[in-house]
Amino acid sequence: MYFYRLQKVLGLDSLDEVLDTKLVNSKHIVQNAYNVNKQGIVTLEDKSKELPHWILSAMKCLANWPSCSDLKQPTYSGFERDVFKTIVDYFGQMKEPLLTFHFFDVFVSVLGLLQNHSKAIEALQISCLLLPPENRKKLQLLVRMMSKISFNKDLPPLSESVKTRTLMVQAFSRCILCSKDEMDLDELLAAKLVSFLMDNCQEILSVPSALKSSIEEHVVHLQRVQIKYAGADTDANFPPPSFCCQISTDEFEYQRATGSQEPLAALLEEIATNKEISVKDKKKKLKQFQKSYPEVYKVRFPTPETEAVLFPEKTKQKPPILMWALKKPFQPFHRTRSFRM
């Protein structure tokens, strides 16, 4: 089954730890997998949810630079930077990230798998199919543009101080992944995931045949059982079932609290050992992490002493004592008589 496959690849005992399956629209999964064009991009039924033509033109211009088929050739220096700013401003004003607030915990869970390339790819392939089709299409177009820009040596630098690849991650991470609380910590999580997305966008945002088979099995199952859930999308042809055993309230709260600890623990360790950030920034990020995930923080830093190891105090060197000052007692100043010649 589709959800069982996601649960298995994430290595979780239950999807309840990271996902409310009642919020998943099975119609979205089917549309994302089958309603696609030759390039694998989702085709939308509701055309009002498409990206504006002028944004698409701007994105194509930078992705295919210097061949700007939709725009006139630049007539002034810095034209490409203005086009880039237009794109950044458009995606920056969205009220919700492309990966949505609902699926934030799912994508954070994938961070624990990044060291296992094939598992991370599969987890993201499945997770990205959960998105509303308009979100998936925007994500496909945006990440492909980011990847092309990063490798386009003909495109002039878009910043004087920041490398193009880093700039892509900084500019678009928040509009791709962030939580409702918009904590400072989200920037680190988003940057890590978006970098991986950008490097593997073609594979992640495609639908392999094995995954399609899983979706077909999922649809057949839904057609048989016809389970209805309160609060589910009434327009969806195939309401999603839950594939979890019933558990107690205490067990559910425990699983929800500990389900995503592995990737969070890895992130905390990265903050603690990062030598490229200043002491001030490191303390700020650690404090934010402690406030957001106290249980994970306490495992890594059970006592103040274990935390203090990260910030060894610099020993101040005392000025050398003048030995002659110790040998001679203080001599008061005596006025001497002046002699005139």
UniProtKB/TrEMBL annotation:
CDD domains in UniProt: RhoGAP_BRCC3-like
Annotated Pfam families: RhoGAP (PF00620)
Entries under InterPro entries matching the protein: Rho_GTPase_activation_prot, RhoGAP_dom
Domain Rho-GAP: 13-205
GO biological process: positive regulation of Wnt signaling pathway; signal transduction
Source superkingdom: Eukaryota
PANTHER family from the UniProt entry: DEP DOMAIN-CONTAINING (PTHR16206), DEP DOMAIN-CONTAINING PROTEIN 1B (PTHR16206:SF11)
Protein name: DEP domain-containing protein 1B
Organism: Cariama cristata
